[in-house]
Specification:
Two copies of one chain form a homodimer. By secondary structure, chain A is an alpha+beta fold. Chain A has helices at 50-68, 73-88, 165-168, 179-189, 195-210; strands at residues 7-16, 26-32, 37-45, 94-102, 107-113, 118-122, 128-131, 147-152, 157-162, 219-228, 236-243. In chain A, helix 4 (179-189) packs across helix 5. Chain A is globular, with a radius of gyration of 17 Å. The N and C termini of chain A lie far apart (49 Å). Chains A and B meet through strand 1, strand 2, helix 1, helix 5 and strand 11 of A and strand 1, strand 2, helix 1, helix 5 and strand 11 of B.
């Protein structure tokens, strides 16, 4: 039997809402996979504010509840699409990304139902790969499917997923963010010890800066990093913080 | 209308499994409340290892999915009990704690179905309150109900929830942890900036130390802190890390 390499999983989410809107239309949820590992779901509901939040909430809830039952990611994404389309008569769309760390297959599984690319970095300071194959948002067309990429878990593997507020940042001022380039620079510069958190915060901060402190849309950033093990103990840690 | 005070929510979970067992029988999950805020669910399944994990997984999944639908905490706890009792014919028990930050009522809601007390600290270095009223684990007896405590959100409010592995730590060596005293000392000593994380890590580290590095049971610790706002931005942050 292969002995799994001594790795550490780091997950970081950073999330802001559109300026002067009471509620973010993005929803990010995490769930443990019953066979081992975890899944993250990022949903961006059409439009912004309360109505967008209601949409992203029902989509995230459906996907999370299926993943918690052990349903495979592709089926969960299809089901979330069918459910939204049935509930809203095909009138409302949402983008949906699922990122899973599957400890049975020892792979990272990335499901895209979004026009936003996903950035994959391997090693430190190397070129990054941009997953930007054509992909449809869920809820509107019939038989929409996710675009799925599966990568073996290995040291210094990084996946960056975001909603389109990150692409919109700075566009009004004609200075949109080159996300792949920025991610590559961050991966070269940051310490392994706190990699995912550093990259997620740097991306979000830069976007908010480009929007001059007033985000023109909801922005969510998720970074999943597989790095050589940092902490000697087997402890699992989760932290959350936000103003209330 | 009352203006809500300028507060920050901090959540920290630290979790280890019993020594020489492949899987923790504890499950900790978090979900956003559809009306605002979040809920955390901590379940300790009877016995340890794979069978305990299967039990804690179905209980946590049921509670999380109801909370995600907007079901109130007390009803979610009752439903999780009824579900486990039906599924397993009353032969298997689990402890269940739900901690919710409810932004509609602006309260912290603590539901206990566990013999483990919950520690509540207010202010820095003051006495702590021990919520230890009689409370039944779920799954076995008929019509089991949670013991619920509801506290208004205010600065320097801390809630510490844990599974019974924390109480078992060091018992073999006759030096069990005085959890209320330890929490009180930690709350007096730690910086507001990273309060929940510091307290959770300190508690778990001390327990593992008392067990001489080989936890005699699964241990999970959850700390929820409401502190004066630390970060100037409105960003929501989530971090996870563990060896894989």
């Amino acid at each position: 039997m292969d002995v799994p390499p001594d790795l550490e999983l780091q997950v970081a989410v950073a999330k802001v809402r559109k300026y002067a809107v009471s509620e973010s239309g993005d929803t990010v949820e995490m769930i443990e996979r019953p066979q081992g590992g975890l899944s993250l779901v990022i949903v961006d509901g059409q439009r912004s504010g309360k109505s967008a939040k209601a949409i992203s909430n029902i989509v995230a809830r459906k996907a999370i509840s299926l993943l918690a039952d052990g349903v495979r990611d592709g089926a969960a994404a299809r089901a979330a699409h069918d459910y939204l389309r049935t509930m809203r008569g095909g009138q409302v769309s949402a983008t949906l990304n699922i990122v899973s760390v599957d400890l049975v297959t020892r792979t990272l599984v990335i499901s895209r139902n979004s026009h936003c690319p996903v950035i994959v970095g391997e090693g430190r300071g190397n070129e990054v790969q941009v997953l930007d194959g054509p992909s449809q948002a869920i809820g509107v067309h019939s038989r929409t499917r996710p675009v799925i990429t599966e990568l073996p878990l290995k040291p210094d593997l990084h996946v960056v997923v975001f909603t389109d507020g990150l692409l919109a940042a700075g566009q009004r001022q004609g200075q949109a963010l080159d996300v792949p380039l920025f991610v590559r620079q961050q991966l070269a510069a940051y310490p392994t010890n706190n990699c995912a958190r550093s990259v997620a915060d740097a991306l979000l901060n830069r976007a908010v800066e480009l929007d001059q402190g007033r985000p023109s849309d909801d922005i969510s950033v998720l970074v999943v990093s597989i790095v050589p093990r940092q902490q000697p103990d087997g402890t699992r840690r989760l932290s959350v913080r936000f103003p209330i």
